[in-house]
Design a protein that fits this description.
96 residues; globular; single chain; mainly beta; 57% strand
Length: 96
């Protein structure tokens, strides 16, 4: 079972979070490291994730054509301020 830590980059789909995972990979020929990035679609049952959150995703049974991970834990939530009258998000730190 694969498990990755990544940043949520999109939540426009219902019950799905788009997660960017970055990891260091060794290039054997030059003996240097470089960043490898990949985007995964993860199942978010309660739509709890927001753009910029740091999450842990785990591999699970395939749910759709491209979705075979699920959000197991939200490690760090992005600070946001919501207007109590209208319910709109006023301030959101994207950390990007």
């Amino acid at each position: 079972m694969a498990q990755f830590v990544g940043t949520v980059i999109g939540t426009k789909m219902n019950k799905t979070a788009k997660v960017l995972v970055t990891r260091m990979v060794l290039y054997n020929k030059l003996k240097t490291f470089f960043n490898e990035r990949k985007v995964y679609f993860a199942h978010d049952e309660n739509n709890e994730c927001a753009r910029g959150d740091l999450v842990v995703i785990k591999q699970c049974q395939k749910m759709s054509k491209r979705k075979y991970f699920t959000v197991s834990e939200i490690v760090d939530k992005v600070p946001r301020m919501v207007d109590p009258e209208t319910g709109q998000i006023l301030v959101q730190d994207n950390r990007e």
